[in-house]
Amino acid sequence: MEQGRATGIKGAEGRLRSVLEVLRGTELTARLKRVLVVAPVRGNASVRGRILAAILALAFATAVTGKTYAQAINVIGIAVDPEGVPIGGATVEVYRAGSFIGSTTTLANGYFSISLPGTGTYDIVVYKRGYERKLQRLDIMTSGTVNLGRFGLGYALSVVAEATSIVAGQGEVVRLPLTVTNVGAYLESINVSVATPPGWSAELISEWGFAVRSLMLPPGASRSFVLRVRVPGTAVGPSRLELRFTYANVSQSLTFIIEAVTKDWGLVQLLYPEVISFAGDALRIPVRVRNTLNETATITTSIDAPQGWVAFLTVNGVQVESLRLDPGAWASATLVVGVPESAQPGRYTVTLSARAFDLSSSSNLTVNVVPGYDLLALDTPTPVVSTHPGTPVSIAVTVSNSGTRAALAALEITGLPPGFGWAVKDEQGNVVTAVRVPPRGSQKVFVYVDVPSTAAPTAINFALTARGATSRASLALGVIVMGKPSLRLATLNWEVEVSAGSSTVFQLTVENDGQIPLEDLSVSLSGTLPQGVHVRVEPQRVANVPPGVSVTFTLSIVVDNSVAPGRYFIPLVISGTGAKVERVLALNVRVSGGLFFTTIAALALLILAIALVGTRLRRRGVGLG
Asked: Which residues, at least 6 apart from 178, have a Cβ–Cβ distance to it below 8 Å?
């Protein structure tokens, strides 16, 4: 080449092999215009060899522009990994029609160069332990250098997952199937690990259910696995996990993105999520605590209430912070919330939270605090009672307040006639003029009415009134004054005499001096009779004795002979409906008449006999004594 112009070289001017060697790798074109082979002198082997070498060199020369007729074909490239890092020590093999042509090894910088015998179709195979065995087919149509550039090698493992980005609930266990295939040329010994965020847990599970930490995988073999991941109960939003395979100085990873969404595990449930309350109120909200997990768990509760509020959880009246429950079991509890007296009207939130392991659940109680008011009501099961003149009556009354604040209920009786007294007493018997009734609570009081003894039979209507700050209640009551029953004993002499062994009769006259008829008027014994004394009353009972009417009862008294003389008493009860009198009948028992005179006669005869004896003795002059 002279000043950019082509020039020719004669064979005689230099060695063709040397010229072609100089042109190799440049952009200069060598073209053989005419080949003349002159047979050397027979027998000169050295000359003949040089001629053949020149012919072969010319046959493999390559043209860079236009058609190439260079001496050989050279394939070059740089082997790199998936990150673009050069791979040294990789084997490069060339095949043509299945026949091995040659091989080389990449340099430390990944560079390789290999010559091909001529045009045609070639298979370039590059592989190394830890990387895939990659084949690239080349159709070489011309001579020269074929630059493959950056020849990328993937890793020896092909990891294919059904999904690499999913959404899962808090606390769930997800299973991600995947297949691992050895696409390399060597048996690989693989270590497996999973990099997870704090609180997460994950492991690779084999087809047989074992957790895999390492495995051996021959070339071309495939294995199916499941990446089992437990999402923490506190996880929120997307999180990144890496499944890592380490082998042959290679670290290969597959990234999974799992977005954790909030999930309510239903550990606690409020039966009433919204209530109406008032300042100073004490709420008791039923709660159900349930173990929704598949294992026995201790469920720990916590309560977040507004400042100044009191809130705690009770089970069977005992304040608790945690419960241990078997799978599927539940317990009834009560959320007690105290609304302070200083609470202003508005909506407040009390949050009841529960945690088991790293799973959490919560329920919100909305408390609508309304302005305070009282709403009084009065009630009694016996609004009307009956009595007699001079007999007081009492009526039990319940004072209730269905309002939102405590009421000081002032009590007053109206409508009683003059002469009738009244009082209101509490359950302890204290006379009160007002009672404090808590919101949604009640108090019991007793209305006492004094009926004068001179009151005539009549029906009296009156009312009990309770007055609060914002409400007033009234209750109609009544007292029926019935006529006063009374009886008078018309018999004045309450003493009889009787001899032992005889009987007598006592007449008892009873008069109804009351205002109403006496029913079931009777005379009966109220105690034990003296021994040997028997009493029979006739009639035994009088069904009805109108006012002003008298009835006479006859008492037949029999005294046995064995009863000694003396004074005895017979206790009697005279009673009718609403009236009763007790009296004692005196019974004097004397000696019987026959015995008395016999005794007198005997005494007279004895005295006469003594007198006669004394007379005779004096006549004889014998002194007595």
From this structure: 159, 160, 161, 162, 224, 225, 226, 227, 243, 254
